[in-house]
Amino acid sequence: MSQLPAILVILLGGVALAVQAPLNGALGRTLGSALPAAAVSFAVGFIALLVLSFASVGNPFARLGAVPLWQWAGGFLGAYYVWSVAWGVPMLGVVTAMAALVLGQMAGALLLDAVGAFGVPVQPISLTRVLAVVLVAAGVVLSRL
User: Fold this and answer.
1) Most CB contacts within 10 A, which of 14, 38, 109, 127?
2) C-alpha distances in angstroms, 21 versus 24, 96, 117?
3) What contacts 40, CB < 8 A, 6 or more positions away?
4) Which helix (H) or strand (E) holds 125?
5) What pLDDT sits at residue 1?
6) CA angle (37, 40, 46) in 5-degree steps
7) Which pTM does this prediction carry?
8) What is the largest distance, in Å, between two alpha-carbon atoms of the chain?
9) For the chain, how are helix, strand and coil distributed in percent, rounded to 5?
């Protein structure tokens, strides 16, 4: 099966993140702080996901009580991401903020893949994968010149 559909969906997700960043930055300026902007962004996203969950799955939260405690951490990490971008974009600009975001994602992903964290298939650290991270780091530097 082709990986192209997954790549395109994720690529569009990246575009969405790039658009979301200045929107949340503007919201933070309007509200006077990035923290309430992140809360509003999460609230709108929560409502959208809740509606879609009930529309697509019969009883989407029936197994919620069986979720291990550590799996709840994704919400905290997502909240940190939204706040960090809403806070950082007005100072760095969208390109540098997104480049730094991708660098953090790539560096973290390299380690998570290497150990097979959270059940993902192990992908060994290789020279080409490290080079990919280095190139993104170079992009962060170049975006500030």
Assistant:
1) 38
2) 5, 11, 28
3) 27, 31
4) none
5) 66
6) 140
7) 0.82
8) 52
9) 85, 0, 15
